[in-house]
Amino acid sequence: MDQVVQHKPLTFKDYKSDYKPVWCPGCGDFSVLASVTKALAELQIARENCAVISGIGCSSRIPAYTSVYGFHGIHGRALASATGLKVARPDLTVIATGGDGDGFSIGGNHFLHACRRNVDMTYIVMDNEVYGMTKGQASPTTASDWEGSKLTPHGTGVSPFNPLAVALSAGAGFVARGFAGDPNGSAKLITQAIQHKGFSFVQILSPCVTFRPEQTEWKKIIRKGEISETNALAEAMAFLATDDGFSTGVLYETQRPVYAPKQEEKYSVKDIEASFEL
Ligand code: SF4
Ligand code: MG
């Protein structure tokens, strides 16, 4: 008779690597790492069947701090790498991660098309409205009157990018906002995002205590779980028309056809090499 091996359930600690994060003490990204690992533990995803993919930036270091497979790629290209991986290995749970500069500026075009394409993966953006790694320049989500950078001492004068509105307009089927100061709430959002079939986008407000110290006040103004989930696009858009950016929850979830290559579109390395032969 075969012996049945009983495995103990994995805890969130099992999804953390032995590397100590180099983030500044108090950075919101610590909490987002905790939320990601809690979500993976909640879903009991086998570590060998999961990959966290990132670009460049403080938050993009996150793959190194998890025990699942990871790829710390190039600036703005997390979604491109993650898309390639998921299409080639649809059996994997693929999570792309990064910051607002990486994801909405350098990687902005990838963001639009990932929403539109609807590959079954999750994208978590740790939004602190600043480029932290390069010492505090304004990012696409920075308010136009923020005068904290020497490069834009009179503010940027440019309207900030609204990530949730862009995701909805571009066709994302799952759109949510969390807050780093609410790790359990964010873990629930990430769990739901991973379970969603198709592209899921989760913005997590994650304070940069070094270059945006005023963001430590976010904990006083965040309204946890105040967003009401809807599957009506017009309703979700109407919510954003009056949104101040500080409510959290799932905004929108709907089911759309998921992009996956047809069998005949799968190429071997040999086919690809042959296509380059003149
Ligand atoms: Fe976090 Fe800001 Fe420090 Fe980067 S610079 S690790 S975002 S607190
Ligand atoms: Mg940032």
TrEMBL record:
Q: Does the keyword Cell membrane apply?
A: no
- This protein's source sits in the domain of life called Bacteria
Q: Could you list this entry's UniProt keywords, alphabetically sorted.
A: Oxidoreductase
GO MF annotations in UniProt: oxidoreductase activity, acting on the aldehyde or oxo group of donors, iron-sulfur protein as acceptor; thiamine pyrophosphate binding
UniProt cross-references to InterPro entries, sorted A to Z: 2-oxoacid:Fd_oxidoreductase, OFOB, THDP-binding, TPP_enzyme_TPP-bd
Where does the secretion signal sit in this chain? Answer: none
Which coenzyme or cofactor does it need? [4Fe-4S] cluster
UniProt domain Thiamine pyrophosphate enzyme TPP-binding: residue ranges: 56-204
Q: Could you give a single Gene Ontology term from the biological process aspect?
A: cellular respiration
PANTHER family from the UniProt entry: 2-OXOGLUTARATE OXIDOREDUCTASE SUBUNIT KORB, 2-OXOGLUTARATE OXIDOREDUCTASE SUBUNIT KORB-RELATED
Q: What is this protein called?
A: 2-oxoglutarate synthase
- Native source species: Terasakiella brassicae
